[in-house]
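# nightly structure sweep
# worker-07 picked up a monomer target from the shared queue
# config: single-sequence mode, recycle default, output format = structure tokens
# input follows
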Amino acid sequence: MEPSLTRRRQASTFTAFTFQQYAFAACIILAPVSLTLYVLAWPENPAPVVGTVAAPIVTSMMAGAAGNTLHFIGAIAASFFLPLGYLGMSLLGMRRAPWLATLSAALSLIGWIPWSGLIGIDDLAYDIAVVGSTPQLAALWVRFNSDPVMLTYLLIYIVGHLLSAILIGWMLGRLRLIPAWAAWAFALTSPLTIIYFLTHAIIFRYILRYAICALWIAGAIPAAWTMFTNKDQTLLAPQSA
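# output follows
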């Protein structure tokens, strides 16, 4: 009787871990896909986001109804898939590099959890664009964007998600869990993102954002496949005695 109960528990545990792996694999690939939808749904605006001009209000007007709808669908979906996707990629290295994987997971969660709050910046810009922008409403957006709470979220987001991408790419490449080209592609999204936000040449920004999204998806696909196929032998399960 007891061996039968043990086998049922083992089967249940295996099923649970298999479900977790498939769920993480889906999040790993849906994270960059949803963010790509979020990014590409709005057109480029060469004006700086931070400053006296509320550039996202103009950008929202340029996007139109369809662009804004897709933009926020991508934003809301990304708020769920990004933390879980990065966590899943970090867990790929847990058995063979536990401390590196733990650091990657911590930076990932710390970096992406503020995303939900930061969406409010775009949402406020959209609402102002809908009702009609006035100097007072534009000033409100600028004040909200530079509010200490939003700046704190922004700083945590910048540091956490940029460092985690580099660390995850390096870890997965070092452990040979994904091809070297995929590891480089994923890690390069961080420095390219920094360059993207520092430049205001519209053609260059278009090139960069397409390149970043393409590299991100290219790096995520092998990681999702590794998680899905359980290449590292029960990656999420504890080491058996």
